[in-house]
Amino acid sequence: MSFQDMAAEAMGGSLEGDDIDARIDEALQCPCVADLREGPCGTSFSGAFRCFIKSEHPDKGMDCIPQFKAFQECLQKHPEHVEGIMDDAEAQEDGEQTFEPQEATA
């Protein structure tokens, strides 16, 4: 899935709206980006996502290179997180259930 496809899914198919910041905040709550948002690179992901949505460059997102680079560098520092996301995505494509309840800790 491309970044633009993921953004469109999270934004409910529309990348435009009156209160774009509120719509971006709402989109960042989408389960489709939860692994990225809640992982070790959540801050850099959110920055890149926000920049991409707001991008007015003719080649959407080209004005977000610094944010994408920061996100990429974070992912490179946390390969275990990327592998987990990819494993979950492959399992979902295969129709498997990937949610495993965790025991509560005291």
From TrEMBL:
It comes from the Eukaryota. The keyword Chloroplast does not apply. It is found in: Mitochondrion. Transmembrane segments: none annotated. One of its GO terms (cellular component) is mitochondrial intermembrane space. GO terms for biological process: protein import into mitochondrial intermembrane space. Keywords: Disulfide bond, Mitochondrion, Oxidoreductase, Protein transport, Redox-active center, Translocation, Transport. The keyword Disulfide bond applies. This is Mitochondrial intermembrane space import and assembly protein 40. It comes from Auxenochlorella protothecoides (Green microalga).
